[in-house]
Here is the input.
Amino acid sequence: MKMHRFLFVAAFAAAMAAGLLFGNFGSAKASGDLAFEHQEWTFNGIFGRFDRAALRRGHQVYQEVCSSCHGLSLVAYRNLMDIDFSEEEAKEIAAENEVEDGPNNEGEMFTRPAKLSDRFVAPFPNEQAARYSNNGAYPPDLSLMVKARKGGADYLYGVLTGYEDEAPEGVEMMDGMYFNHSFPGHQIAMPQPIYEDSVEYEDGTPATVAQMSKDVTTFLAWTAEPELEERKSLGIKVLIFVLLLTALLYAVKRRIWSKLH
Amino acid sequence: MLSPEKGIGKWIEDRLPVFSIARHSLIDYPTPRNLNYWWNFGSLAGITLVIMIVTGIVLAMQYTPHVDMAFNSVERIMRDVNYGWLLRYLHMNGGTMFFIVVYIHIFRGLYYGSYKAPREILWWLGIVILLLMMATAFMGYVLPWGQMSFWGTTVITNMFSAVPLVGEDIVTWLWGGFTVGNATLNRFFSLHYLLPFVIVGVVLMHIWALHTVKSNNPLGIDMKGPQDSIPFHPYYTVKDNFGLGVFFFVYLTIVFFFPNFFGEPDNYIPANPMATPPHIVPEWYFLPFYAILRAVPDKLGGVIAMFASILILFVLPWLDRARVRSARFRPIYKQFFWLFLVDCFVLGWVGANPPEGMFVTIGQVATIYYFAHFLILLPLLGMFEKTRPLPESIAASVTSAAVTSSKG
Here is the structure.
């Protein structure tokens, strides 16, 4: 019997290892020689949570720095209330933007201040306008950025802090490109977005490049996985239940099979 | 309850013998008494299929199969539908678990010779299920309409252009147009919804065939009398339930804590026909076959080799001529079994990497070995391998094993 149990565990272990192997080889090659390091994130690990103060600061960085070029089209203003913005605050943030609505009773389109139910208003009406204003480059929507890149939050933080004033010797830079040691190919069309004191934090936190990068990455980790906290806390309860149930089933199994021996 | 003597139960039983059929196949069904935990994976696969169908039906209620809306409708499920993220992650990772479970189930069959007479049709039906699963999984991966969805579809459907003369026409017919587009997405959604029910039908036939020829067992010898078997219930119902608990622990750990582990980040970028991702990789469960496809320098040859790598399983019962089923009594086959398993892992590893440098050679050697296993090694082993003596009966073996283990 011991042997069987061992084999059973081994089977699952082998299957998992297979997955890990393929999964990792799949991901290893695309990150290649990029230099970004693992950071400590409060939302990692099975008890992971988003740091509310960091989310608030990160939102401020997004608003004041990123939002002039990057959209957040999957997030609605009402979602801010999920991370402890008050209804008043969320309404205020929404109302700072104008959206086109209509047609009204006279058949005319009109603009109005954005409401809680609106998604974050995009900086450009379409891709062509965005490219026209950005030297031909298209600033991608940031809603899912943390999920859509190998390395996730570490990658994003790496890019934001990975700018170097001058390309290393021997690297030929293309026109309008900036050297970044964390970006694939090291040449990025986005100029360094965050400098010392780019924003003045409402909570008085010193606005260093590292601090702002960390905060906005936390904010974008939330926009990518707004379900993360609920998922992890439910997951722990579910797994404890499954573990107890399985132990019980094992005891029943032993008991029933003991009749045979 | 399942042998009604009177009342409404008897009334139904006399007209449609549902109770006796249920009793016959779920309770009394005589099962070898020596099945080990590798035999759990059949019922696990069946349950995974049910989970996939249930979560899939609910997801389809919220999903929009249109190139302009599919990506956002999936994100809407993730963000705005109550527990939509849970449903989607269950479905997404359910596919991964389905393949893990089915691959283990298949390799168990290979190890214990479960494909040999009289189980050939049972084995065939299993391969048909595998092929249907692959088609279903491939089309399901297209639905979120991310970059990997789009480019994966483009690459895989383009394979058919290798068919001589009518290749291009077949591809146009598959796409429903001249590029991968809305018509493609719509038909894949339609078929992705249909095929699982076809799988259910083939699974029922698989079980029907199983109950006709009865389960194989680790010794690979037939049941010779009542002393060799035990009723399915309660012995294997409880054992399967315990296995199900372990399965759920693994599955739900992935769903709740590593939901995107098996996925590609690129699929969170909306499909863009103008931008090709640097590396187009299929889902992990296709990687060994992808490696075989790319191992052959000729396009048509690669496609043929890839399909042949699965279709060869249909003739396996005749390629392996050994009379003895279980690898326990086939010392040499046992070693080649493990080598073959390693070969499949190597193919998977090659499939995950770009076809450059050493991966080309490794992929070609591993592909040749894959086919040599079936076409050269197995027929030769059937002729020359000296098998070990088989035990007299399952019961005899179980009792002597019990004596040995109590001594040790």
DSSP finds seven helices and four strands in chain A. Confidence is low (pLDDT under 50) at residues 23-32 of chain A. The longest strand of chain A covers residues 98-101.
